[in-house]
Write a structure and sequence with these properties.
The chain is of the alpha/beta class. It has a domain at about 10-140 and about 160-170 and about 200-220: Spore Coat Polysaccharide Biosynthesis Protein SpsA, Chain A, CATH 3.90.550.10. Helix content is about 35%, strand content about 15%. It has a 7-stranded mixed sheet, with helices on both faces. It is globular, with a radius of gyration of 17 Å. The N and C termini lie far apart (about 35 Å).
Length: about 240
C-alpha cells in the first residue's frame, strides 16, 4: 500500500538579514508555497521582519535575540501545532539555494528517509566563497562529530535540513531545555536522530558565500560557538544531560 506524501513546513530562520532577505524570499516563492512556510525572526533590529510580512510570509517574532536553536524550536512547535509531519530548515541569509529545496525535501516527502541533511562536500555539492579555513575545519569538525555520533556525516555544520518531527515528541528527548537555545539544538537533534534509528540521508547541496561581504559570511564565533555545537554530543554521550 502506497504511503501518503509527508507534509512539510518550511521554517526560515532570520536575524538581521535586511540586506539579503528580499531577494531570498522572492526565490523561495518560486519553489515553495507560502501557505506551508513560516519565518521565525529571532529579535531582529532591522527591517527584515517588515520585508517578510510585506512579501506575504507568516512571521513568528521573538521579542529579543535568543539564538538559532530557539528560532528552530519555535518553528518545530509551530509545525506540530499545525499538524505537519516534518520541517525544512533554511536561513534567510541566502547561503542556501531555494532551487535545491526539492533535493532536500524529496527523500523525506516520499518516505525514502526520515532525516535529510545537506552536504557541500559530497560529489555534486559546492560552496563558492567558502574560506580556506572553513574548508579545512568543517571536515575535521565533522569527523569528530562522526566519532561521537557513530554515524558518518561529511558536513555536520550544514544547516539545510529536512526531518520528521514525531521523534522529538515521543518522550525520548526534550527540545525545550533552556541550554539548547543557541547552536546546541541542531546537534542535539542530530544525536537523537542517530540514537533513535532514523533513516538519515546526506544530500549534495550548494552553500554559497560569494554574495556576502567578509563580516556577514558567518555569525559563528570560533571556539565559543564550536563548543556550543559539540557540547550536546559530549553531554549526551556522557549522560550529563537528557
Amino acid at each position: 500500500m502506497q504511503q501518503n506524501p509527508v507534509s512539510i513546513l518550511l521554517v526560515i530562520v532570520n536575524y538581521n538579514q535586511e540586506l539579503e532577505i528580499n531577494s531570498f524570499l522572492c526565490e523561495v516563492m518560486k519553489f515553495w508555497p507560502l501557505k506551508d512556510a513560516v519565518l521565525v525572526d529571532d529579535g531582529s533590529t532591522d527591517r527584515s521582519t517588515e520585508i517578510a510580512r510585506n512579501s506575504g510570509f507568516e512571521v513568528i517574532a521573538h521579542p529579543y535575540n535568543q539564538g538559532v536553536g530557539a528560532a528552530i524550536r519555535s518553528g518545530i512547535h509551530h509545525a506540530q501545532k499545525n499538524k505537519y509531519d516534518a520541517v525544512l530548515i533554511m536561513s534567510s541569509n541566502g547561503k542556501m539555494l531555494p532551487s535545491e529545496i526539492a533535493s532536500i525535501c524529496d527523500p523525506v516527502k516520499m518516505n525514502e528517509a526520515d532525516y535529510a541533511t545537506g552536504s557541500r562536500f559530497l560529489a555534486g555539492g559546492n560552496s563558492p566563497g567558502l574560506s580556506n579555513f572553513r574548508r579545512i575545519s568543517i571536515p575535521i569538525f565533522s569527523a569528530i562529530c562522526t566519532f561521537l555520533l557513530g554515524r558518518k556525516f561529511s558536513d555536520i555544520t550544514c544547516g539545510f535540513r529536512c526531518y520528521r518531527i514525531d521523534f522529538l515528541f515521543n518522550g525520548t528527548c526534550d527540545i525545550n531545555q533552556e541550554w539548547l537555545s543557541r547552536y546546541e539544538l541542531e546537534y542535539y537533534i542530530h544525536y537523537w536522530a542517530c540514537r533513535t534509528g532514523l533513516c538519515i540521508k546526506e544530500v549534495p547541496v550548494t552553500i554559497r558565500y560569494s554574495h556576502l561581504n567578509e563580516k556577514r559570511k558567518s555569525k559563528i564565533r570560533p571556539i565559543v560557538d564550536w563548543w556550543s555545537m559539540i557540547k550536546p554530543l559530549l553531554f549526551l554521550r556522557l549522560k550529563l544531560k537528557k
